[in-house]
Design goal:
alpha+beta; Hypothetical Cytosolic Protein, Chain: A; 30% helix; 29% strand
Length: 83
Protein backbone atom coordinates (compact mmCIF):
# COMPACT_ATOMS: atom_id res chain seq x y z
CA UNK A 1 0.00 0.00 0.00
CA UNK A 2 1.40 3.36 -1.06
CA UNK A 3 1.72 6.16 1.49
CA UNK A 4 -0.58 9.17 0.84
CA UNK A 5 1.13 12.55 1.49
CA UNK A 6 -0.86 14.59 4.01
CA UNK A 7 -0.69 18.37 4.44
CA UNK A 8 -2.46 20.86 6.71
CA UNK A 9 -4.82 23.57 5.46
CA UNK A 10 -3.77 26.92 7.00
CA UNK A 11 -7.41 28.01 7.43
CA UNK A 12 -9.23 24.92 8.74
CA UNK A 13 -6.14 23.24 10.29
CA UNK A 14 -7.36 19.90 8.84
CA UNK A 15 -4.84 17.31 7.69
CA UNK A 16 -5.87 16.29 4.19
CA UNK A 17 -4.35 14.40 1.26
CA UNK A 18 -2.13 16.70 -0.79
CA UNK A 19 -4.35 16.23 -3.87
CA UNK A 20 -7.32 17.82 -2.01
CA UNK A 21 -5.38 21.04 -1.38
CA UNK A 22 -4.09 23.98 -3.42
CA UNK A 23 -0.50 25.12 -2.77
CA UNK A 24 0.40 28.81 -2.72
CA UNK A 25 4.09 29.67 -2.79
CA UNK A 26 6.28 32.75 -2.27
CA UNK A 27 9.53 32.70 -4.22
CA UNK A 28 11.79 35.71 -4.77
CA UNK A 29 9.12 38.07 -3.33
CA UNK A 30 6.50 36.86 -5.81
CA UNK A 31 3.41 34.95 -4.70
CA UNK A 32 1.79 32.45 -7.05
CA UNK A 33 -0.43 29.39 -7.14
CA UNK A 34 1.74 26.29 -7.48
CA UNK A 35 0.24 23.98 -10.12
CA UNK A 36 2.86 21.24 -9.70
CA UNK A 37 3.19 21.22 -5.92
CA UNK A 38 6.96 21.21 -6.34
CA UNK A 39 7.85 24.86 -6.97
CA UNK A 40 10.72 26.34 -4.93
CA UNK A 41 9.97 28.75 -2.11
CA UNK A 42 7.89 29.02 1.05
CA UNK A 43 4.57 27.30 0.53
CA UNK A 44 1.27 26.80 2.30
CA UNK A 45 -1.90 24.87 1.52
CA UNK A 46 -5.58 25.78 1.26
CA UNK A 47 -8.44 23.31 1.06
CA UNK A 48 -10.16 23.19 -2.36
CA UNK A 49 -13.31 24.88 -1.04
CA UNK A 50 -14.78 28.28 -1.97
CA UNK A 51 -15.75 29.02 1.66
CA UNK A 52 -12.17 28.37 2.81
CA UNK A 53 -10.71 30.68 0.13
CA UNK A 54 -13.22 33.42 1.04
CA UNK A 55 -12.33 33.06 4.73
CA UNK A 56 -8.60 33.27 3.96
CA UNK A 57 -9.26 36.45 1.98
CA UNK A 58 -11.49 37.98 4.65
CA UNK A 59 -9.06 37.25 7.50
CA UNK A 60 -5.98 38.05 5.35
CA UNK A 61 -4.40 34.77 6.44
CA UNK A 62 -2.03 34.61 3.44
CA UNK A 63 -0.75 38.11 4.30
CA UNK A 64 0.31 36.78 7.69
CA UNK A 65 1.88 33.60 6.35
CA UNK A 66 3.98 35.37 3.72
CA UNK A 67 4.51 38.63 5.70
CA UNK A 68 3.50 40.71 2.69
CA UNK A 69 0.38 42.03 0.96
CA UNK A 70 -1.23 39.33 -1.20
CA UNK A 71 -2.77 40.61 -4.43
CA UNK A 72 -6.49 40.12 -5.19
CA UNK A 73 -5.50 38.25 -8.39
CA UNK A 74 -4.18 35.36 -6.28
CA UNK A 75 -7.61 34.83 -4.71
CA UNK A 76 -9.27 34.98 -8.13
CA UNK A 77 -6.78 32.42 -9.46
CA UNK A 78 -7.50 30.16 -6.47
CA UNK A 79 -11.23 30.35 -7.17
CA UNK A 80 -10.67 29.47 -10.81
CA UNK A 81 -8.75 26.30 -9.73
CA UNK A 82 -11.87 24.97 -8.00
CA UNK A 83 -13.68 24.21 -11.26
Amino acid sequence: MKKIPMRMCIVTREKLPKKDLIRIVKYENQISVDETGKQNGKGCYLKKDLAVIELAKKRKILNGVFATEVDENIYEELKSKLN
